[in-house]
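Action item from last week, closing it out:
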Amino acid sequence: MIDLHTHTTISDGTDTPAQLINKALASGIKVLALTDHDSIAGWEEASAHLRPGMDLVLGSEISCQTEDGISVHMLGLLFDSKNQELQDVLAQTRDNRFGRMERIISRMNGAGIEISMEEVLAQLSDGATLGRPHLADAMVAKGLAKSRDEIFEKWLHNNSPYYVAHYSPTPERAIALIKAAGGVSVIAHPMASLRGRTVGVESFSSYVDAGLDAIEVFHRDHTADQRNLLKDIVKDLGILRTGSSDYHGTGKINELAENTTEPDQWQALEARADNRRVVRVF
C-alpha cells in the first residue's frame, strides 16, 4: 500500500512523526509520505524511527492561493530540503499564520466568542505550523463544542464571517519552487468543495505548464463522479494520478491507507524527481 499524504503534530495532526511511522508500519503500508503543512520539521524524527519494510517519502503540503483568492493545497514530495528559496517561502507562510490567527480571534471575540491566542498556542506542539485546527482544539478544550468537525461546521469554514485569508504563493509559483528544488508536485484534493471554493478544471492546464506532475484523484472528499472526471483529466493532460488518506490522527476521521496510489503511478512519479530521495533502512 502506498499513502502519499499524511500529517503529524508538526502541523495539524495528532500523532507525532514517530507515532505516525509506527502506525503506518503496523498497517502494512509500504510507501508513506509525510506532508505536514508548510513545514519539514518532522522529517528528522520520522526518518530516525523508520524500520525495514517501509519507504519514507519526505515532503510538505504547501498552502497556495489563486489570484482570485481560492485556496489550493500543493503536495511537494522528494524535494531538496536545502533549497533556500523554497524554505524561505515556507517560513514566510508559517510566520503569516500568527497574524492571521490573531485576526480570526479578534473577529470571534467581537462576536462574543471568548477565546484567546494563549489558549490556541497551548494546543500547538513545539515547531508545529499554526492553523485553524489548533483554534478548533482550543475551543473544544473550552467546552464550546465536542469536536473539531463541529467547530469547523459552525464557525471556521471558509465562508464563515470569521475566515481570514493568509499569505501563500500561487499554485504556479509553488509548483515552480518544488520543481526548482528537484521535487515532484501533486495538487491535493482539488475538488473538495466542502472545504470552500475550488479551482475550475480549466486551471489544471496552467498548472501542468508550470510543471505539475500529478493530481490527487482518490481522496475521501471526492465523489465517485469527481474521481472519474479527474481520471479523465489526468489522462488528457498526460500526468499521473495518486490516492491518499490525508491522515490527521484523531483530528479527522480519515484512516491510514483508506485511499492509496497505484504502484506504477508511484514509480513514474518518483522517477520525475531529479534525485532518488526516498528514505529506506535495511
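Closing note: The beta strands are 2-3, 31-34, 55-65, 71-77, 184-187, 214-218, 240-243.
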